[in-house]
Every structure is written in C-alpha cells, then in structure tokens.
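Researcher: Quick test of sequence recovery. Tokens follow.
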C-alpha cells in the first residue's frame, strides 16, 4: 500500500532551538514562533520560497500573468465539468464526520471554485514579487487530503485474484536546479517515456501536478504538450495540493480513467521542492 496524507490547515507553529527551552528565553518574554508550513515551503538551501521558483520559471519561459490566470480558470471549469459528469466518483473515498448535529458525509472536494471568472481573479495582487505572475488564484491551494494506491507484482495479482486498474510500465525520477524546481516533470517524463520506448505521441492522457500555473505552463511549453489531452479534469489549482497525497491522487485518477475510456497509455508527473521531478 502506497499513499500519503497532509493536514496543511493545522500545520503547527514552532519555536526552534534548544536555547528557547533551556534558559534562552524567559517564560512569556519575547518568544519567537515560526510557521512550520511556510518554513517547509521554502527551500532552505537555495533560500527560495516555492512561489519564487514559479516566478523564476515565468521569467525564463516568458509566461504572462494573463496566461496564468486563464489556465487557473481552465482548471476550475474543467473540474466542474468533470464533477457534473461523475468522473471522480470511482476514485473518491467518502468520509463520515460525527458531530452533535449528526453524521456528515464528505464525498466531494471542498476547495474547487468552478464559479471563478477571469474578471474576478485578474484583480488579485501578485504574492511573491512586484509585477509577478503568481497569485492566490493561479497557485495550488493549501488544503487537507489523503490518497492511497495498491501496487502489486504480476505474481501477486495472480496469487490473490486481483483485478488491476492499470499497469506500471516505467517511471522516471530526475533532478533539476532547485530555484526552478517546477520544471522537474519535463525530464522525468522524458526519462519514463524513453524507458518504455515511447514518445508523447503514444500517450493518450498527460497529468502534471498544478503546483503553480506558471510552473505547469513552463512544463507544457518545454514539452510542447497537446492540451486537448492534458489535465482535462482540473488539477491542484482547483482541487488543492495536500503535499503528501497529491501523487496518489494523480495516479488514482489516471488509473480509474482507464475504466471510463478507451485510452491505453497515461502519464502522470509532479515537481518536487528541492529540485526534483517524478513521472510514471
């Protein structure tokens, strides 16, 4: 069983250093706390926030603010269309929440905003630099989530009478410059395809995690992706990006889509903070 979970909404504040507890700061006097979530979203070696890595890519690949906002709306609208068609039904695991008012069943992602419009989000200010392209609307959201998949060998499938949803043909894991970590999926996808003796023309569906619109669009430009078969049902900009769960979410979505289409080859990929890319 492979998977992960992330509770980003409750990431704790932290007081770092042994001096804080053992005599460095008197009780109630000037204690400095840091947000573990923001700390974790900054590359400590490159001293670069993840949002700035997207800004760096926007500069390198000439990605405009308008392009980022248009892609963000695409993510929201395509999620809404897919939800209406029941495309996510196979992969969702409903959660029951008990309260004084009774039982609430959560079976739909809460983060998407399919009602968003270009007019509404175009007025948002850039977050990471003046005249930048990254805003709250065209970046992946902070949210909670969990995902899980079962990976089995061919022999285990036979021994246990399992019915596979998909077959893992190849994978790629690569490194890249940390300050442009979002370009990591490019080489990872190329590596995975090379191992399988395939090219992108052999692929029916491509799913690249939408950490930031600028990051996704840079990958799309570098790979010359066919957008008619790429991220067709929204992504992290609409769904959110609970870090430890996003890999399982992408794989589960692509695996279940085989059951709803005549597709034969799918590729999923994500960038990784610190300067990596991964693809299957």
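Model:
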């Amino acid at each position: 069983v492979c998977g992960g979970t992330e509770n980003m909404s409750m990431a704790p504040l932290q007081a770092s250093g042994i001096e804080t507890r053992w005599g460095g700061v008197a009780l109630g006097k000037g204690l400095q706390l840091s947000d573990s979530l923001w700390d974790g979203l900054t590359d400590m070696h490159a001293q670069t926030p993840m949002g700035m890595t997207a800004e760096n890519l926007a500069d390198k690949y000439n990605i405009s603010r308008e392009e980022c906002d248009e892609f963000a709306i695409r993510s929201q609208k395509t999620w809404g269309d897919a939800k209406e068609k029941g495309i996510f039904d196979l992969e969702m695991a409903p959660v029951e929440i008990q309260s004084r008012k009774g039982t609430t069943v959560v079976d739909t992602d809460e983060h998407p905003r399919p009602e968003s419009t270009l007019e509404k989000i175009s007025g948002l200010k850039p977050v990471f630099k003046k005249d930048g392209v990254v805003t709250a609307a065209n970046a992946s959201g902070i949210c909670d989530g969990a995902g899980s998949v079962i990976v089995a060998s061919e022999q285990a499938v036979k021994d246990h009478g399992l019915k596979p949803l998909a077959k893992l043909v190849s994978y790629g894991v690569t490194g890249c410059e940390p300050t442009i970590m979002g370009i990591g999926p490019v080489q990872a996808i190329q590596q995975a395809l090379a191992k399988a003796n395939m090219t992108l023309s052999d692929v029916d569906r491509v799913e690249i995690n939408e950490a930031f619109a600028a990051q996704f669009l840079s990958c799309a430009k570098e790979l010359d992706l066919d957008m008619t078969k790429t991220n067709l049902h929204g992504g992290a900009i609409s769904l959110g990006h609970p870090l430890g769960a996003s890999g399982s979410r992408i794989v589960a979505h692509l695996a279940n889509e085989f059951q709803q289409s005549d597709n034969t080859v799918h590729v999923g990929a994500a960038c990784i903070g610190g300067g990596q890319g991964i693809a299957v």
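Residues 52-279 form a domain with the Peroxisomal Thiolase; Chain A, domain 1 fold (CATH 3.40.47.10).
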